[in-house]
Amino acid sequence: MSTVDKTAIPTGDEMAGMTQEELARLGARLDGVELVEYGPRFEADSPAEKRAERQVAKWFLLSAASALAFILIFVMWPAGYQDPFSSRQWIYALFTPLLGITLGAAILCLGIGVMSIARRIAPHEVAVQQRHVGPSADHDRRTLGAELMDTLDKTGLKTRRGVLKTSLLLAGGGLASAAVLAPIGGLIKNPWAQGKDSELWVTPWKPAADGTLVRLTMQDGSFVRPEDLATGSIMTVFPGVPGGATASDAAVMLFRLRSNEPIRVRTGQDGFNYGDFFAFSKICTHVGCPVSLYEDQTGRVLCPCHQSQFDIHDGAKPVFGPATRPLPQLPISVDQHGYFVAVHDFIEPVGPGFWESFQGSTPWGSHPEVQPQPKPVFPPFGQLPKENS
Amino acid sequence: MQAHSGGRFRRRSKALRRITGLVGLVLALAVLGVGYSAFAPTGNSAAAGPVDAETIAHGKSLFDTSCISCHGANLEGVDGKGPSLIGAGQAAVYFQLATGRMPAKANGAQMPRAIPVFDQKGIDAIAAYVQSMGGGAQLPGSIDIANADLAKGAELYRLNCASCHNFTGKGGALSQGKYAPPLNQATNTEIYAAMLSGPENMPTFSDAQLTPTEKLDIIKYVRASNDTISPGGYDLGGFGPAPEGLIAFLVGMGVIVSITLWSGSRS
Fold it and tell me: Which end of chain B is less enclosed by CB atoms within 10 A, N or C?
């Protein structure tokens, strides 16, 4: 082993005469690392080396076997769906876990194997590294600071070159704006573009332009008649117009309350119900979750998201939780064919309130032109006109 | 050198402790799961029995000894104790008696499921008696879900039932101590009777709202979600991603920390 001064860098000729290990030690020493102990872990071909090698190879073989098992399971497993009534359900249920276990084991064993090389086979070494304590030397810090400031001064960026700085600022700002606009710009639209028919004002329950009232339909599209609901029941209904069942503001809960229960309605909403039938928006006025946990005896409807509770027996006013406004009531009646219809649209915003408010004579956030209207008069049952088909 | 290897030993034993702790957690979870499944009971099913004057008379005698104090001598109910049963119907009586909720053991927010007091004959008799007093919803003769439509049932369940009973039928909380019970203990007949009669705070689902066929579809879905094998071995209450994520985070973090400690333990 040659003795080299810590700072002295050997010449090319000297290095040409050094062994590989000496060069490695030299490199470490020039980096301030002194190898106290350094050398192979085993005698070549010793039983200990063979044992260590087997122990590492064991992990790699295990990884290979797991990967092979993953491939075989992926290709050959009978993975078709088996319903829970089938005796072969467990075959279906095992498929995904087996894929996860085998692939995970393959990755894990490979990693353990690589770490085992470092732990069991890599050269044994004990190294001491010199580390300086505290800040850099005084002259280092002073010269570096001067270097930076001198460059800045000589470029003139500190005192002059206003055009350069301004244009650079503009370039940066423009690029940032463009980058932000790309993802966000598409979200900006004018919610009032359609005037009084704007999305926030109307729901699909609004009668058609020719005055046709929208029927209440079940999810499968069939119309609802009063006799479909037993006393003390709830049904989720949708407007009977194209896209009505998927409109986010249109879901309505239709209740049939008990006729002997004292029911209160909100001011100005008399006659919105049809006998014992009451229809309220299903969209929570807090943040718009579907409320439908209906307690038949207490008349409460619970919102599953934040535990708001609305009292159906008292105009669906909130009685608990964060919601502050009652669920909007849909005015309903029965048309001449015996099906439920919405007399007109909601008279207040559905779901979480928004910031446009026409306060004064109208309820908060009301549509400026949609106000409670008298119920249309239909001929009584038994005198129904023949339906033209 | 001695001190050095001593430090190594301490670090290694710390890693070992973490690994044993993790193994302990997994074992505890496994024991909990097995114990839970061992205690989850299975139900029995029943069909409506014959109805004749003798049965009704027998039902009245049972009613007069077990139900009269809260529901009144003529089923008119007792103020502050129990509701009127006029028009309640056979389905409601079957549900309440077969699930042991009635006769009530104690006052509370809600009657819990219990071991039935009456045998099948007694239940049929009382049901026939109540049915004879004002009619009401009745169970069909047989409830066979073999040909029911599982997918349709799942859709209807999500729309009508899942908000309270959870999408895997595990039940859930309502206001002020009330709850929607888990459906794993209920028999097919009991689920049918519950939909038909709307016990306690559950709404009623008439045959016009959910046809008998649709009711069978829903029962099939409840059975299916109950019998589905949980791929992970334990469903953590069937509440979905929140508890699953928590356990995945805790267990996964434990494993990652253990491996990190092990791989760094060689100096």
Answer: N
